[in-house]
Design a protein that fits this description.
- The chain has 258 residues and is an alpha/beta fold.
- The protein has a single domain, classed as Metallo-beta-lactamase, Chain A, CATH 3.60.15.
- The chain is 21% helix and 27% strand.
- It contains 7 helices and 14 strands.
- A 7-stranded mixed beta sheet has the order 6-5-4-3-2-1-14. A 7-stranded mixed beta sheet has the order 7-8-9-10-11-12-13.
- Helix 5 packs across helix 6 and helix 6 packs across helix 7.
Length: 258
C-alpha cells in the first residue's frame, strides 16, 4: 500500500500545501481520503486526471470536500467525453450540499459523475482496501478512517476534538495521521480540534508505530505544533505532514517517507 500526502493544510490552503487530501494506492486501485480546496491541482502531480477509483469525504467542511466540485467538471465535461461514475463515500447529505456549493439544481445534481454512498460507522471493502469508519467529535457529522491492506494500516483522525473513538480506530496502526490544529494553550474551544500534545497522547494510548501531525493551520508555526507534541509522551517516530510525502507500507517494509 502506498500513501501520498497530497494536501495537509488545515482550514484553508497554505503557501506550501493545499487543504486535506490523502491518496491511497494498492493493486492498481486509487482512492483519496478528503478532497479539500486546492487539492485537485496537486493530485495531478501524482496520478492522471481520470485515474481515481473512489473518493471518501470525512465531512463537509470546505477544506475537506470542496474540490469535488472541480472534479465534477473534470469527469463531466472532458473533451474525450463524460467519464464513468465513481463512488463517493460521504455523510448522507453530501449530494445536496455539494450541489449547493457548485450552484446547480438538486436534480440531477452531481449524480451523473458520482455514485454517492452514505457513510456510517463500521467496516467495508473499497477496492482492495478494508476501510473502517468511526464518528469523531466535531460540530458536523465527521468520520475518522482506518485503511488496511497487505498487513499495513493507516488511521486518519479527520477533524476532531477529544474522543475515545480515536483510540479504538487507531489501535496498533502503522501510521496515525492525526490532526493538530491548535497550539497547546489554555481555554481552547472544546469538541472542535486537537493540539500536537493531544495527538501524541492518542498515538501513545493506541500503540501506533508512527505519528504524522496533519491539518496544520497556516497561521501557526508548525514547529511549535511539533514541540507541543513532544510533551505528549509518545516515544515512536513523529513528524509533521508534508505535501508530496510518500509512504510505502506492507510486505514487512514498514513506513518509509519519500
Amino acid at each position: 500500500m502506498r500513501m501520498t500526502i497530497v494536501g495537509c493544510s488545515g482550514s484553508f490552503p497554505g503557501p506550501e500545501s493545499p487543504s486535506s487530501c490523502y491518496l491511497f494506492e494498492a493493486e492498481g486501485f486509487r482512492m483519496i481520503l478528503d478532497f479539500g480546496n486546492g487539492s485537485l491541482g496537486a493530485l495531478q502531480r501524482h496520478i492522471g486526471l481520470y485515474d481515481l477509483d473512489a473518493i471518501c469525504l470525512s465531512h463537509l467542511h470546505a477544506d475537506h470536500c470542496l474540490d469535488l466540485c472541480a472534479y465534477h467538471v473534470v469527469r463531466t465535461y472532458s473533451p474525450s467525453g463524460a467519464k464513468a461514475r465513481i463512488p463517493v463515500y460521504a455523510p448522507a447529505d453530501a449530494p445536496a450540499r455539494m450541489a449547493a456549493a457548485y450552484g446547480m439544481p438538486m436534480e440531477p445534481g452531481m449524480e451523473n459523475a458520482f455514485d454517492f454512498r452514505a457513510l456510517a460507522p463500521g467496516t467495508r471493502r473499497i477496492g482492495p482496501f478494508e476501510v473502517t469508519t468511526a464518528l469523531m467529535n466535531h460540530p458536523v457529522e465527521t468520520y475518522g478512517f482506518r485503511v488496511s491492506h497487505g498487513g499495513a494500516t493507516v488511521a486518519y483522525s479527520a477533524d476532531t476534538g477529544e474522543t475515545e473513538e480515536l483510540v479504538r480506530l487507531a489501535r496498533d496502526a502503522d501510521i496515525l495521521l492525526c490532526e493538530a490544529s491548535f497550539l497547546d494553550r489554555p481555554d481552547l474551544p472544546p469538541d472542535l480540534h486537537l493540539t500536537g500534545r493531544h495527538a501524541a497522547e492518542y498515538a501513545k494510548r493506541a500503540s501506533v508505530s508512527t505519528l504524522i501531525l496533519t491539518h496544520l493551520v497556516p497561521w501557526y508555526d508548525p514547529e511549535l505544533i511539533l514541540r507541543d507534541a513532544f510533551g505528549g509522551g509518545f516515544e515512536g517516530p513523529m513528524e509533521l505532514a508534508r505535501a508530496g510525502a510518500v509512504y510505502d507500507l506492507g510486505d514487512s517494509r514498514g513506513p518509509g517517507g519519500g
